Amino acid sequence: MKEKGRKAIATNRKARHNYAILDTYEAGVALVGTEVKSLRDGKASLVDAFATVDNGEIWLRGLHIPEYGNGSWTNHAPRRTRKLLLHRKEIDGLIGKIRDGNLTLVPLSMYFNDGKVKVELALARGKQDHDKRHDLAKRDAEREVTRELGRRVKGMR
After folding, report:
1. DSSP codes joined into one string, 88-121
2. 91 and 157 in one domain?
3. Number of structural domains found in the chain
4. What is the residue range of 141's domain?
């Protein structure tokens, strides 16, 4: 019986803080059996992961999927390079965008979509420290405004 819907495995929470997200893509991942079993246990880390373009193909590097506990000598290497599965037009478009500007491909999340492992990949530009501070200040200001509006609606002020 197939699963329906989207079940999260791992998210890269720091990515939205460290990068300005320009565009997102959904890509499949070429995995071996013990990797899928380990992912079904909910074990993966996208902390140091990034994607590169080599010979017209997109590869995910630095993704950590721990070895499957019940695996034998056929277990996988935890940090091996994994191929991302995208349409040729998407790959060509990404290659052009990456070569034009100083953009990078960052995985935002990994999830099961109808039983298949997918990665949400973002075309992103790195943020400077002052950009990060500006975003934090903006978020705090918006939070204060909504708080104040809530108080006025309730008649507290």
Report:
1. HHHHHHHHHHHHHTT-EEEEEEEEEETTEEEEEE
2. no
3. 2
4. 128-157
Exposure string over 56-88, b if 16+ CB within 10 A, otherwise e = eebbbeebebbebeeeeeebbeeeeebebebee
Give yes or no for a contact between 101 and 125, defined as CB atoms under 8 angstroms apart. yes
Percentage of the chain beyond pLDDT 90 is: 20
Q: How confident is the model at residue 135 (pLDDT cuts 50, 70, 90)?
A: confident
Count of alpha carbons within 13 Å of 39, Cβ hemisphere only? 29
Q: pTM of the predicted model, to two decimals?
A: 0.75
70-93 tens-digit pLDDT:
766 777 767 788 899 999 999 998
